[in-house]
Amino acid sequence: MRSPAAAIAWEIWRKNRWGLWVLLGSFLCGLAVRFFDRPGDEVLQLIAGTAMVVSFVVTFAIFSYAESGMQMSFPTRTFALPVRTRLLVNCPVLLGVVGITLVHLAWVFLFLLPLDAGYPLGPFTLYWAAALLTFQTLLWCLADYPKSFVVVLVLAMALFVRLAVVLFENHDAMRAIDCLIIVLPVAYLGARLGIRQQRRGEWQIPAKAQLLMEVANRKLLHRKRPFATAAQAQRWMEWQRNAVAPLIALGIGLLVVCIGFVRLAALDDEFGAITWAWSYIVCALLTLWAFVTSVLLARDASSKSLALSSFLATRPLTSGELAFAKIKVAGRVTLVGWIIFGVALFFWFNFFGLHADTPITPRDGALLPTMGFAALALAWHLVGALPLWLTGKIESAAWAGLLLLGGYIALGHAIQFLDKRFGLLVALSLLFTFGLIAKILIAVWAFSEVNRRQLLSSRTIFKYFAFWLLGTICLVTIASAMSQGGGFPQPLVTLGAALLLPLARVGLAPLALAWGRHR
Amino acid sequence: MKTDSSPPTDPVVEIKGLSRRFGAKLALDNVSLCVPRGMVFGLVGENGAGKTTLIKHVLGSLKAQSGEVSVFGLDPVTDPVGVLGRVGYLSEQRDLPLWMRMDELLRYTQAFYPTWDVGYAEQLRRQFGLDPASKIKSLSRGECAKAGLLLALAHRPDLLLFDEPSSGLDPVVRRDILEAIIRTVADEGRTVFFSSHMLDEVERVSDHLAMMVNGKVVLCGLLDAVKESHHRLTLRFGTAPARPPSLAGALIVHGGGQEWTVICNGALGELIAEAASLGARVVEQGVPSLEEIFVARVGARVLRTQPSSDL
């Protein structure tokens, strides 16, 4: 290696070869779509769109230049190298900016320009560079403060989503560009300052703020009483570790999005378009939140990996009790998420409720509640993906995400295939019926196995089954009521609603955890 | 949860013909051993010998691919609660939840063990100098080791299972606290099973010993019996032999010229007679230290201490 810069570049390449392969694969996918593209072919556009999203996510992961310790942080081992801090920061920053620009340009010519000739290339090149740099800065500077990192990241994402909307609408685009021009140097200087202070051992929250946080922590979160049972202790641990920060982030994120859009709507007369954008962003935020929460719950409370640490694996609890602590917290998180989402809807209804243009009026089929319901169903579905991750066979959240994404894409294709052969209604009916039968059969097998291995008591199994039955009856009733007069036949909606509450996955979770615990 | 119905004379840990393979690597090869109740059992071996893998089988974190593992007469995989509720485990990695405060960690761990002794936990916390308000992530490596030790001890487990307990502890803590605790626990009739690289520590504390090399147990028994079955003999030849002397039972031979030192096991009388038949007389004999036995078992067969031209 001829220079330190070359060594850092080599390290990024060596560590992320898998990511470069994924990038190459997604570009080939985009190239194939461009080659076979027929106007209006939504399936091909969906494939290209998915590949594009994957490639952006992977690029962010590659150039995060973060080391996997107990928390993701700038590799502190490099502080012992005889090089200036400037070089340590500049290398990953420059490589990242160049990398994301190349990825962006590739997708512009493969996919975006053919789709929309008026795509604002210049501003979005600036946009992606600023986004990556901001992500790097936050990750490096807030590594020791994970809760603050999540909250600030959500705020930053809300800001960037807002900027993207403004750039796309060409409305006030110059102000957005000005904003990006300011963000770039500020983020860079923030990264430089943060890493320099870390290297000097001076990177910490001021003593007064620390004291304030300590007091708040003690008043709000600190556990003073002993636990009545081991299961209660385990639930407390899961809640404190994995639930509090994502919920705070969701609340703040929704608040920021709502306030931002209300301000935007005040400047614009097109309430309908703004509400559409609002709904999409809120749904994206909910999906992201659900994904982050499920990954946090899937991983061990004391390690970054999705496998169990020896500390947790040696708790004298059955694998069923360990898994149920996670499932109960997942249920509570979802419930609180629904409440937060309800508050956001209430806020939005109150602002736009009286306007005829907004798509929340009955004439538009109550769009927002439907979208919200779908997003939250997805949220619960993602949280229900726990059994897959509790096996401990998936190394990291990135792989878990890609695997899940692959599953959803495969499902989308199955629906598309059946739709072409039999029509959408028949396709959905077939899939839902098959899903329900599979769900019940798997659940019967899983719970009988759980019972046989004494992973859970019969009482717990019975209680969950009763909960599932009651919940499913409620959901089916609500869905039937909502579907009256809608575009979908009632039996289909009923079947879909019966699939919502997890049963088989709850039965499989203890088995998966036991598999990971006793390898 | 199943209950332990084993009579008190049964071994606490019993391993029969245990083998484990990770891909192409055979980590444990037909390992069999018994850990008797009320004993301090030391497990020694070089890096990668299979000590941690063996301990993970005892904990039920790894399932036996072939062979059997029973702890208190129970299978740790099918009955983890029955086993882990009576085990105090200190992991080499000290992977405690970093985000908890010390007092929260104590309350959290207390919930899992009905036999948790609050007074003893508090006494140990003071003895170790751990601040209840400090976060685990702010503790030093040594303090983390002490916190792990506290959690393993405070419920007065029937079996203490330590994987490299000395790792991260300074010599004072190691000698004055860890060893004292291990002896106290054993004197109370409880059992200690620990792995260590510190052979002097194992020698001072253990009653029983097992030595592992490449996934196999090459030596197992009472420490005194193991030491008594090994001998260090210094041989003097009339003329320097052309090659290192070959003695039945020799584990390692080093030296050069006319004088060679041999670590061997076997009957002493037979060894002396064989040395005489090679034209050597025993000028010094003694009991080797555990470290010498360990090096002899796992180290090179012949160590030349002088250039070959001197031979």
> Beta-strand level of the residues of chain A, as a percent range?
under 5%
Backbone CA Rg of chain B = 23 Å
Measured by DSSP, the beta-strand proportion of chain B falls in 25-35%
The main sheet of chain B comes to: 6 strands, mixed
Provide the residue-averaged pLDDT of chain B. Answer: 83
CATH class of the largest domain in chain B: Alpha Beta
Biggest beta-sheet profile of chain A: 2 strands, antiparallel
Count of individual helical segments of chain A:
20
Number of strands of chain A: 2
Structural class of the secondary structure composition of chain A? mainly alpha
> Over the alpha carbons, how many angstroms does the gyration radius of chain A reach?
24 Å
* Oligomeric description of these chains: heterodimer
The two chains with the largest interface, and their residue counts, are: A-B, 32 and 32 residues
Q: Which CATH architecture of the largest domain in chain B would you pick?
A: 3-Layer(aba) Sandwich
Report, as a whole number of angstroms, the end-to-end distance of chain B: 67 Å
Decide which structural class fits the backbone of chain B. alpha/beta
H and E string of chain B: EEEHEHEHHHEHEHEEHEEEHEHE
Average pLDDT, all residues of chain A: 81
Describe this structure in words.
The complex is a heterodimer of chains A (519) and B (311). With 519 residues, chain A is mostly helical. Chain A has 20 helices and 2 strands. Chain A has helices spanning 4-15, 17-36, 42-62, 85-115, 121-141, 146-169, 173-200, 207-220, 230-242, 244-267, 271-298, 310-313, 319-352, 367-383, 386-390, 397-422, 424-452, 458-483, 490-500, 504-517; strands at 67-68, 72-73. In chain A, strand 1 (67-68) and strand 2 (72-73) form a beta hairpin. In chain A, helix 1 crosses helix 4. The longest helix of chain A is centred in the middle third of the chain and has 34 residues, at 319-352. Chain A is globular, with a radius of gyration of 24 Å. Chain B is of the alpha/beta class and 311 residues long. Chain B has 2 domains: 13-225, P-loop containing nucleotide triphosphate hydrolases (Rossmann fold); 229-305, no CATH class. The radius of gyration of chain B is 23 Å and the shape is elongated. Chains A and B meet through helix 9 and helix 12 of A and helix 2 and helix 3 of B.
